[in-house]
């Protein structure tokens, strides 16, 4: 075993160089560095037993590569990022969350977050823009346009306006609808770039409610149905009869600072409701 210690150091250095090495290549390179075949065999067995490396067989050839968990736990930042990139290639367009990375590589979530955000800043990873999956990371080549309301990185105002018109037309023609019913009908129109989710439909309905074009009620089964204001016997008579901000779909992002993208000073809904109240007075 005395000879195994230097052998493991040489072998580990060879594997670390590229992250993966084929069996015949490591035998050749290790022999060139003065190791005997018996020492190479013992060294590889020890590294496998200690789980510092992993062996896999592909098309009849054995490859040795670093155990990514150990690399991330004990390696430097560059090695950690390289291991994460290899893992991201495995998961593909499914992506991975901070928790996935922390669990996979036995990291604290704060360190995993720091690594992932650094990789996003450098352009080596993409962070999903969909607010329902804010912690989803993937390689840029796997990134998809996840939010139907954005196109080319910008809010697609034309599409949103068209979608709200379609929703109004459906309710006018078929009467009060649930979110699920509306989502199914909208997807059946064939006008969607990607399939709408119930959350997508809900965001449009919230916009229509805030602009006082729709209202909602609870049916006998307890489901919420959305209807035209005129379809309810009791309609909202004042913008202050329901708490405006409690209905707002982006209330959690609202900030009192005027420099913020979402703030009372720039809120089109608040402005509209205030104007309506002044007219009623």
Describe the structure.
The protein has 281 residues and is mainly α. It folds into 3 domains: 4-66, Orthogonal Bundle (Arc Repressor Mutant, subunit A); 70-142, Orthogonal Bundle (Arc Repressor Mutant, subunit A), CATH 1.10.10; 150-235, Orthogonal Bundle (Arc Repressor Mutant, subunit A), CATH 1.10.10.10. 49% of the residues lie in helices and 12% in strands. The protein contains 12 helices and 9 strands. The protein has helices at 4-18, 23-32, 37-49, 68-74, 77-91, 98-104, 109-122, 157-174, 179-188, 198-210, 244-247, 268-280, and strands at residues 20-22, 53-58, 61-66, 126-127, 137-138, 150-151, 154-155, 214-218, 224-228. The strands form 4 sheets. The protein has a 3-stranded antiparallel β-sheet with strand order 1-3-2. Strand 2 (53-58) and strand 3 form a beta hairpin. Helix 6 (98-104) crosses helix 7. It is elongated, with a radius of gyration of 29 Å. Residues 1-5 and 233-243 have low confidence and may be disordered.
Secondary structure elements and their pairing?
Blueprint: H1 4-18, E1 20-22, H2 23-32, H3 37-49, E2 53-58, E3 61-66, H4 68-74, H5 77-91, H6 98-104, H7 109-122, E4 126-127, E5 137-138, E6 150-151, E7 154-155, H8 157-174, H9 179-188, H10 198-210, E8 214-218, E9 224-228, H11 244-247, H12 268-280
Antiparallel strand pairs: 1-3, 2-3, 4-5, 6-7, 8-9
Helix pairs in contact: 1-3, 4-5, 6-7, 8-10, 9-10
Low-confidence stretches: 1-5, 233-243
Derived structural class: mainly alpha
Under the CATH scheme, the architecture of the largest domain is Orthogonal Bundle
User: Mean of the pLDDT scores?
Assistant: 76
CATH superfamily of the largest domain: Winged helix-like DNA-binding domain superfamily/Winged helix DNA-binding domain
What number of domains? 3
Q: Level of helix content?
A: 40-55%
Q: CATH topology of the largest domain, what is it called? A: Arc Repressor Mutant, subunit A
Strand content: 5-15%
Number of strand elements: 9
Order of secondary-structure elements: HEHHEEHHHHEEEEHHHEEHH
Major sheet: size, sense and barrel closure?
3 strands, antiparallel
Distance between the termini: 92 Å
CATH class of the largest domain reads: Mainly Alpha
- Our count of helices gives 12
